[in-house]
Design goal:
alpha/beta, five-stranded parallel beta sheet, single chain, 11 helices, disordered C terminus
């Protein structure tokens, strides 16, 4: 078998829209809040997909909000470039092709921009320990509530008690149906398929956590290339030795996998799930005895003779 590139090598935020799958409920809440002019706080543990969601929101907001001229601006507040409120304002205003680095300059730039503006701030909690962080978020939230812009912020912790109220969207584990969508998005064009049993195992071994699922799917794909590859053990070793910071897998996952045994984690391509459709039901009719046929023929002839008289 020719070895193929493993599509599950990505670590970190999903930026390619082809590989973003699921999160229908969360996106519906988020875009619904934006339509109501509410600033949005996206909250979840490390690796659960907050950054991926924000990237997708920036890429899809124009279509979802039916504002095709929308301008989306994304900033990561964990970056060294955003070391002050003035720098954040300057970056947003510069994206609008205007000068300035104050709330007043931003408001002026927004007033001079005919298209709606969306600002997505990732790792917003990084600004909170600073003297300017809460004031910046409150200022942007007021602009959002006033209808001047749309605002979505991702927090790795619970959002603080700011002066302005945010609509809260919590990101948790994938639903089981989203596991299939997630893997199919990456497997398209590879000729590899994960069957129902393996999809269930991916969910159980990752607890639906997207970052762990990405890792588990990587090792499962390796098993599709090398049938003897112990994908579950390799994944669990990686998860134990290099856990997602702040989101280690609980011991129960390792214990359950050990109890099941390595033989339970073989590759399932789904071929065994396909069934040949049953043949259409037929009814066998037994032929009548010869004397019955002769009697019926004679009766028909008699009826014809009487009708001709």
């Amino acid at each position: 078998m020719e070895t193929q590139h493993n599509p599950f090598t990505q670590r970190g935020a999903i930026r390619d829209p082809r590989f973003f799958a699921g999160r229908w409920g969360e996106l519906s809440l988020l875009f619904g809040a934006m339509e109501q002019r509410m600033p949005v706080a996206v909250v979840g543990v490390a690796g659960v997909g907050k950054s991926s969601l924000l990237h997708h929101v920036a890429q899809s907001a124009a279509v979802n909000l039916e504002q095709l001229d929308l301008i989306a601006i994304s900033l990561d507040l964990a970056g060294a470039a955003t070391s002050s409120a003035a720098e954040v304002y300057r970056l947003i205003i510069r994206a609008l092709a205007q000068p300035g680095e104050t709330p007043t300059a931003l408001l002026r730039a927004l007033a001079g921009t005919p298209a709606p503006v969306l600002v997505c701030l990732d790792n917003a909690e990084q600004a909170l320990p600073t003297a300017w962080g809460a004031e910046l978020l409150d200022s942007l939230a007021r602009l959002a509530r006033g209808g001047h812009l749309l605002l979505a912020c991702a927090f790795g912790t619970e959002p603080p008690a700011l002066g302005e109220r945010f609509a809260l969207v919590r990101l948790g584990a994938f639903a089981q149906a989203e596991v299939r969508l997630f893997t199919e998005a990456y497997l398209e064009g590879t000729g590899v398929a994960f069957g129902p049993r393996n999809l269930q195992q991916l969910y159980q071994l990752s607890l639906g956590h997207p970052a762990y699922m990405q890792r588990a799917a990587y090792h499962l794909f390796q098993a599709a290339q090398q049938p003897s590859y112990p994908w579950a053990r390799a994944y669990l070793d990686e998860a134990r030795d290099m856990p997602i910071p702040g989101s280690p897998l609980p011991p129960q996952v390792f214990a359950a996998a050990a109890a099941a045994g390595e033989a339970a984690f073989t590759l399932d391509t789904g071929e065994g799930q396909r069934q040949t459709p049953p043949a259409p039901a037929t009814m066998e009719i037994e032929a009548p005895p010869t004397w019955v046929v002769a009697a019926l023929v004679g009766l028909v002839i008699l009826v014809i003779v009487l009708a001709l008289r």
